[in-house]
Fold these 3 entries.
Entry 1:
Amino acid sequence: MPLAPLRATARRLRPLALAAALGCLAAACRQPPPQSPWNEARLARLTTRQKVAQLLMARAPASALSAAPGDSSRVRLLRWAGEGLGAVELPAGPAPAAAALADSLRGLAMAPLVAARVDRGLAAFAGATELPSADGVALLGDEELAGRVGDALAGEARALGASVLLLGGPGLPGDSAGMMPAALSAGGTAAYAALVRALAAGGAPPAVTAFRPARADTALAVLPWDRTALGVIQLDWLKASVNAGATAVQTGFVSLPALTADTAPLPLSGVAVQGMIRRDLGFSGLVIADLSAEGPLARRYGVLPAAVAALQVGADLLSGVDDPAALADSLAAAVERGAIPRAAIDRAVRRVFAAKQRAGLGLPPADTVRPPLRSAATLATAAAAFERTAVTLGPLPALRGCRETVLVAQPSAGADVLAAELARRVPGLLRLNTWAAARRGTLSRLKDFAGNDADCAVVVDAPGAPLPLVDRIGSAARRDTSAAARRDTARFRADSAAFARDTVTRRMVYVSLAADPARRLPAARTAVLVWGAGPQAQAAAVRALFGEIRRAEGQAAPDTRVAWPAARTLVRADAKAAAMNPDSLARIDAVLQRGVDGGVFTAAAVAVGRHGKLVKLRGYGRVGGGPVDPTATLFDLASLTKVVGTTPAVMALVDDGKVKLESPVYRYLSQFRGGGKGDVTVWNLLTHTSGLPAGDDLFGQSADPEAAFRMVLGTDLTAEPGMRVEYSDFGMILMAEVVHRRADEPVDAFVARRVFAPLGMRSTMYTPPLTWWSSTVPSALRAGASRPYTVREVVHDGNAFRLGGVAGHAGLFSTASDLAIYAQTLLNGGSYGERRIWSPRTVQRFTTKQSNADTRALGWDTPAKKSSSGDYFSARSYGHTGFTGTSIWIDPARDLFVVLLTNRTYDTGTQGQILDIRRAVADAAARSIADVPITPRPGTPAAEAAAARERAAARARARARARAKRPVRRGRGTPRRTTSSRRRG
């Protein structure tokens, strides 16, 4: 065929071909996008065993990182994963080997999720960048920085091949407050959420752990926090994390009856999983239960029973599994016999499938280049983050004026960068590696302890090489049993101990690398805490130590609220340890037992402390069929709420600069105006000089809390502000609303966040949950015609009841032991252990008697002539009472406190009877002090009686002297003495 006609035909067809091509593009003639294999069709094809295998997260052993093709552990893990594991947790080790294992897992037909545990970033994988812990980032409360850290961490996770990051959340408060706030501030919660959001956006959505015990050895503890406290401690940040994109939630090994109404551990509680996580938080992702063999669930119940129970209540993924094949067989059998509903298994598998689909598992890899580990941008982010989150306590620069400085660090601490940076700033720095010397040979070669001549010491505490630095002898030296070695060992230990004892006087600087938020801090002049242990963290520690870190204007400092040095914490001790007479102190027992026997109250608890020693903590009477427990029995505090709930909240806001005592109330509560109210200040409300009346019947005259509060707002003044003292419940109700407005949360939530949770006051709460019923003391057989029932676990005060149970004047419940901690914190000047609640200046200001306010301090009262504090508490004392028969008195002059809780309103107890008992208890405590003279307070009945006795004694002495001066009368027959004889006599 000739070519010309063919060319002509091609020219005619070219536009048609172009049109067809364009039409093909418009009609999506390209290959359809690959469909995810994680769908209902695959679910329908799975056997029961394959389904339950999807619900297991195997913990890969470290040996699985081996590149040897025949390595048994690696082959076994890949076989398990190929059979349909839901997830695999990568073991710590070299990052390249972990990435290679992740690639092998992702290439399987039934590819599992690949999880990596976040611990200071991915520092557990050698070759990755160390970043500050999530706790450290949240501590700063900087959303921008948290986002940068999240971006860097997500990039490293992609480089590692991890599709899920196991991220710890802030723990529950423990016995030691540690370095972290017990409840994140609003800024801390927002920063944590920003971190989660960045991780989710970067393709590494985290699994967050909530309700984590403060200590790892807390095995299935039952914690009595109420719902409000748990909200500010955990639920706020957990909800923010869920909303920010967390892919999974894991709960800690604790029981929280206030949430679940039982003592079931949270991972095995249907109320926690289905009610709190699913319903309340609206969470549709994975719920994880940890079945690690060393974990509390497996130890208490066994792995299989715990696994069955967790799946029954709605868990989706069981982590920490060491033998998934055996567990899958056992769980499949449990499903077949009906122990686990098939519908529950199918729901859980669908959630696992959804997580795998989001991770892109089973699809062809995208044409993207993996980000590198330790990129320049990531290292810069790490350096900036460590500098920003570094915490410095004590004077800086700490080493100014030091003549000889020694750096004390164990060789395993890996503090080479820190040592080099210190050496650049401290010429002649001596680096003391005592234990390296001990390990190199016998102790006989070790001469005098090298640090004894130094006047300054930098002591480094690092992961794997913790303090104390005393009594750590190398194993080689311990094997040397010669007499010389034993002698040198004893000398070494003595010198080391002396060095440790002297570090405070020799200006010790404590540097904590990879600081543990729950750990107590040692005594030192200055401390630097950094949230990492690598080169960037060490460099940041030295810069912080020398005051070289300058924060830009507006940049926040870490929110530690750490007391430095640590304040006293209460310890149980006998009376003699506090210089008190035990026999005198024992009189309290007789007084309170007579009160129980005489029907003044049915239950009582007392706490007495001095010099940080809790010398008496005892209960009297019975509640709920058992004896009163001063650590667990709740009492209605009544008006003690004013000084345990409302006043401490105001103190915190004054410290924060959000409330000023001299400011008019209308500045914070705009509706409080008219009729002279514009002149009422915060000071007036706290000193009861506002001109407001004592109160009115809110319960009988209003139908709901809103109407009741409107009544308080509309109450007219009965006196000009500042002219007289009238004890007013209404004033404290308004004060609680001021707290609400300025703290942007109700007073119960704010005081739980700022006071109760940091101090570990687990049993102090408003509106106790029903689970406390048997251990709550009833406050009345009946509360009149309006409440004709036994008042128990609801507030006795009718006005507080109408206000919803949370009010400024009443509503709080607590135990004697919790209030003892609170009283000791005030005696300490606002700190308890390592937690600072208020500044000493604020404590002094609020507890000092105010001028022109009768006996009133700010919120508190001070002793009157006939006071419930008795006659022997000093004039510097402050305290308060509650209508139900409660009282607290604190004497800073004697370093003494007395807490008394009763239910005198239950039946026939009168105010006169409880006043006499309060006075007797206070007098017994004060008069038991043995190391200083105890005299009655001037003006008290005891002082007047003592003065009367002294006057009577003085008159008697005067009469005696007068009688001695009178001439002696002689009887008849007595010879008269002559002048000469008198002179001779």
Note: Confidence is low (pLDDT under 50) at residues 1-29, 434-450, 467-480, 978-985.
Entry 2:
Amino acid sequence: MIFARFSALRVSLTLIAVTYALVAPLAFAQPPKGVQTGATVEGVTEYQLANGLKVLLFPDQAQSNVIVNVIYLVGSRHEGSGETGMAHLLEHMLFKQTKIHKDIFKELKDRGALYNGTTHFDRTNYYEAFPPTDDNLRWALGLEADRMVNSLILKSDLDSEMTVVRNELERGENDPDSVLLSRVLHTAYLWHGYGRMPIGARSDIENVPIERLQAFYRKYYQPDNAILVVSGRFAPEKVLPWIVETFGRIPRPERKLYPTYTVEPTQDGERLVTLQRTGDTPTVLVAYHLPAAPHPDFAALEVLGMVLGDDPSGRLYKALVDGGKAASAGGGASRLREPSVATFSASLQKGQSLEEARGILLTTLDNVAQQPPTAEEVERAKTRILKSLELQIADGQDLAMGLTEWVAIGDWRLLFLHRDRVQAVTVADVERVARQYLKPSNRTVGLFVPTEQPDRAEIPPVLNLAAMLNEYKGQTGVSAGEVFDPSYANIEKRIQRSQLPGGLKLVMLPKKTRAGLVLVSVRLFHGDAQNLVGKQAVADLTGAMLGRGTKAKSRQQIQDELDRLKTSGGAGGDTEYSVGALQTTRENLPAALGLVAELLREPSFPESEFAVVRSEKIADTEQTRSEPQTIAMTEILRHLGPEQVGAPRYIPTPDETIADLTKVSLAQAREFYQGFYGASHGVLGIIGDFDPGEVEKLARELFDNWNTPAHTEPILREAVNVEPVDRWFETADKANAFFVAGLSLDMNEDHPDYAALTLVNHLMGSGLQSRLAKRIRRQEGLSYSVGSALTVPLRQKRAQWVATAITAPENILKVQDAFRDELKKAFEQGFSGEEVEQGKKSYLQEQEVGRSMDQLVLTRMMQLARWDQTFARDQRKEQAIAALTADQVNAAFRRYLRPDRLSYVKAGDFKRAGIKY
């Protein structure tokens, strides 16, 4: 939902055995001493240790990784006066050091782990994913057990990290929509903790005493307030004793945790909040109080939210976007442990009336009680919600991370019960909850209006979940896939390559996956450096129209068909290529691929949709045109890769983009499609559970007789030497500033120094263990997000190295000085032999983890196929990296990343910060 922002770890499945199995409940002849066995639902089994720690084990041999995820039942809801942001601040502090682990970031990096921590209203969690070795798993369990009670929480660490968290807060304050949401929640909740965003108040973050933060840690970071989730390729009979060995030795705390008891009083009138600050996209946001997510009404409320807020079938979208009164509209119900909210919003582009949009939005919401949802609307909404839930349950790693939210809501089994409840929702249920909760007196958006006879919505209390879920068993298990070795040799052994007579290249990697999941991508190239001149805007609008209707289907029918097929995906395009992509299952693959082919081959270009598409693109551009990051990145990329105006790879300014989009007509979009679209030049890639012979036959039927009209060949540019620049841009009333430095390189993947420079970038700016992150974020606390990226094309000899950081405007010169100092140290002193060896190890482990992600493998598979290459190229690169010496790495650094060649761009509110430049 609009404020349930959770960065879930998304790891694709990679598998190896040749059997299909059912996910079975765990079985122990006798669990370890002191361990109680709890419920088992659809492959997940609960245990509880004597100290109160709950453990969820979800073995899934289809996964190529193991995930360890610790969830603490503490979030912003638990914070008192002066404590706002403390749960989030502790999330950062627990990556500092413990009595045993002195550099957690380094240890995680050394093992090539994917990791993070996240904080929300009801919980905080920490997770790491890594290759499934016994050593990795025992280490991760030991780390999490150690930082559960032994994190040092030092004042020196707080001083540096506090500014990083404040920097993160300021980044949110740059976004008017984020600030508006915060204001609306604070107004909707007069007393309850949900009225405070997890990031906290600036004054609390800056002034929290270390003793109070330590006390908060000791109170909530205890085994009886935590849930440990272990998911992936592991043996439960080995892991459960390890858990007892590591976590079981932690004593049960003597303190008693009291449940939060603040109850928000029934709202007794419409409330208004107005936000005034710089920006380009007017927005109206409405919030209604709802029951907590475990309440039986919530399933119907989520369906109601989809009926109203879906894009494009939702009533708000049809009333506002189709009606030309807004650029976007949507919303829905948010899943929370205690009485929650539904939020609905509309964003406008310049020239549209905010008051008119507000009136239409409120009228549409008010009228749903008098014009109840139809059976078709309810069924469509249920199908979309169930598709999302079922795909999550089908994907083992999505399920492992998704359990975080349901644990926080009250019990992990609620995920499955909620699915069952959505299946049972009726039209009458949706009509009833609309009348009960969508009342003017229950919303926050407008002025307070005294009413003689208030019509109030009584929110039901939180239920007894233990009693409600006592007999719940869930549905049958989900089929599992094979164990897959993500080595280059095995990937190449599995890949099948061919070329259709019409020219389309086909690259396939078949393997058994959990629930028969399949990923498909088709990329069709069109045009060349000459015939695409001046075509950027029309190409973008043409690509955006592909999903807006075909000769046989409307936009809504397309979405309904995707939902029916339990498929996510669609089609689009830009100047040089068009794409179709989907995630589906084996049984639905033929129909889903046929639908994507229909989107690419038979778009109808409906006139009613063209104005909407253009309005959306203009609004998106207007929304970012005053953002420091957009301004700085656009400027550096324009400088490093100069092109003639109108060239296919010319980077326009936001003003140029808006002007060009405004000029494009529907007739021009149709003409571009007829002149450039076809399948003579392209790649179709597929990975997952499918029959290669059937897919190749289907590909011939769908694409082989579709020729590309225009002359097509790759656009290959050479590197351009540009003079270094140092440019500043003022962005008034923005809390964050953006720093970027970069240079162009004459290099592609065939260059002999490619491997060495890859490792240079890894050491310098990749991840929190890099030199830039250690200095600018961890040591000086100047930036929440700092790092570098090396972009090297496979064929084109135009590479770039770019380093970026977000910071407070008053710290921009400190960031620049620290960056230059680290660059100078590396240039003059070089990287040590130990640093290079550790960097090689962590880089190669990261690549191994990446090869377990199907989406990354598919993307690289297709890129290599375009140029008739194999993964042997990547294997040779990694072998070259493994053989590098410190002298070779330092020579590459000094040869290419010379400090005097770098260009700098800074954007921010520097005048208000008193920065002179």
Note: Residues 21-246 form a domain with the Cytochrome Bc1 Complex; Chain A, domain 1 fold (CATH 3.30.830.10).
Entry 3:
Amino acid sequence: MSLRFRFWLVAVAALVVNVLGLSALAGWNATAATSPVPSATANGVSPAALAGLTLPTATPAGLPAGTRQDCPRPASPLQEQCQLFTRGVKAARAASRTATGAGVESPKVLGLGWSATALQSAYAITAASATGGIDQGTGDPETVAIVDAYNSVAQVKASLPTYRQNEGLPACDTATGAGCVTIFNEFGKASPLPAVHVTGWEDETVLDVEMVSAICPNCHIDLFEANSANLPDLGTAENSAAKVAKFISNSWSGGDFPGESDFDQQFFNHPGVAITVASGDNGYGAGYPASSQLVTSVGGTYLTSAKGTPRGWHEVVWSGQGTGPGSGTAAGCSSGEPEPAWQPDASGGQSAKQCANRTENDVAAAASGPNGISMYGDTSECPRWCQAFGTSVAAPIIAAIYALAGTPTPNTYPSSYLYQNPADLFHVTSGSDGVCEPARLFLCNAAHSLSDGYNGPTGLGTPDGIADFVNRSAQNIVSVINPGTYDVRAGVRYTLPAVKAYDSAPGQTLTYSASGLPSGLKVNAATGVISGVLPAAPASALVHLTVKDGTGAKSTVSFRIISVKSLTGSFRGVTGPVRLDLAGKCLDDAGNSKAAGAKAVIWSCDGSAAQNWEFVPSAFPGGPGSIRIHGKCLAFNASGKIVLAACGTAISQQWEITGADGGLLNPATGGCLDDPSGSTSNGKQLDLATCDDVESQAWTLPASPVTSGVTGKCVALDHGATSTGAAIVSSACDGSAAQKITLALNSSLRVGGKCLDVSKAGTTNGDTVVLEPCSSVPSQVWEVSSFGMLENANAEKCLADPSNSAVNGRQLVIEDCYGMPGEVWAVS
């Protein structure tokens, strides 16, 4: 999906992230006076619920004893984690010094991993490393930027000279800048740098500069240090790096979470810059930002020597045993990121054997070996020589190889170069990073690679020289950003956001054309804006949009426009208390008034008529709903105070359910329904305040139906059965108890005293959804995603009515999040 979750102010423990608006919403216009503007994304985020998905920090399976994960596990989806494991080496130090002379330690004698020389040999870049990394236009060193968190200045300055000396690399040339490091804060300034914060990111930063040095000794390195490991800080550093460098390495990753794609345009859309991102180290499953269509996603291999073979080296997918940290390179089918035009199944055909969303990865490099990869540190975690493991090793290797290949073509995405001639890479044909769908084994198993050698864990393969990292197209390149699926309401006029496109040749005029558009919609040939009135009948259209320049160069992206009937057409409202997660308080209509302007207050929950509210969802997929009582709607006035008002289309009356934090969000302002200062005084008037995930903003709505994009259907218990393991089905909306569902504060969906769960915590397309005792396990966490999809936090797949069936009693399942009608829901 082009946009999935709206992120407002989120606070988790000490994490406070500022408001991130959705500029794309400005492109949505509903010109019919009676048609409210649909929200491109729906609702908020539940970091507290997702925090439980991170895995323990014990010694990872498949890595040597004594190996530790350097960076702490994320506290929320907005926090990133460096993808590095290290193992200190203390044995044989005395022998090493004796053998090599005082002051120099031999990695070989110490029993360390692959050296710079070995890595250059493995990827056939020895000659390129010796002479490359020089800008052919200026003669200056190419600059590789590294983005990391916190302040590691002292460690980098102490470690890098020793590493370069021991690895036989030239020292920093202060005259040209080759081999030198310049350090900036996240805003691209020399000062102030972030505070020193010992978390393990020091090792990550040291490793990154050493790996770039190992592959491209002549390159200059710009190190951008973000104030924290939170995505907005790292993203700010990313934007600063893109202003000065054409190559950026990111050795950090997070989960594939609802809302990630909103960050694509903010932080990662830098055509003409090679951005590499570590895929992650938790085995099968996609992660962000590696899943962004705008970056090069880098997987990891296990590299061994293979004397007597033509190459002299052998690689398999890096994998451990079981699941969790260190279990292998991450990979998979993203739950919502759209697929770039150059990837498998880019036609959008949703083949069961492929993935119509973004597929990780694009390419791979060494993440492990018999003794890992050598690094030299001056940190508490890695004093002197260490063995390093993880996709944190692979990401800077690939960024440095891009630098050896030369400056990318302007207005292109360098990840696309890999797909021009995939035969020019070393294909990896064995190993897996976990268990995935039997019908799509290529997503996790290299033995089931596609015809061009592609598989999820290692992408198209590993470097065989620098040839495949250069744009070798004989014509201009037109690059088009895939907007992803649009779920809309049938029979309404729409103006969709313009599709973004870039041309490698300056001065070219781009023209847009489309096939497969629903009748009534047209694309503006000059702007790429799609607009018109949709037919009244629901439909699913696979659109192929082609952008061409004056020379005939073109590119095509495929996406869907899916229209559904009004989501309130079969809605049967339920009234009841709106409870605050604070001292037994409820939302109350002061004095049980029916007058416009009456105050909305908190009051002790008493079941009176003044607390008998109804949430009415939007008729539009993912749109904001209204909160009603006595024929009036909850609204805020000019002072931000909450009152009752005559129901209409005013933005002050629009509320979205944010999910696990219980927030009721006004999308126009980004503010949340709030009990000021967490007051427990009866009669305290509510207001609109910055969303900050606190008890005073945590509301639970009455148990109500969840209506489907399949006309007339609701989520229901199968024949009302409440036994453990009972099927969850799609059935005709009837307002019965079997269809009254509560979205709880921990983002579980509760009905009949139990919770919706994926059978056996499954993660495969088609795994069934059943009723289980509530336990707050990740497979019971459901996030309200874009256009009303409900994404399962454990499986990274969406609640689905299979085949968009209108048959009563069809058991619900999880499937890839494609925005089909059977995946569109109105939670109330």
Note: Residues 10-44+575-700 form a domain with the Trefoil (Acidic Fibroblast Growth Factor, subunit A) fold (CATH 2.80.10.50).
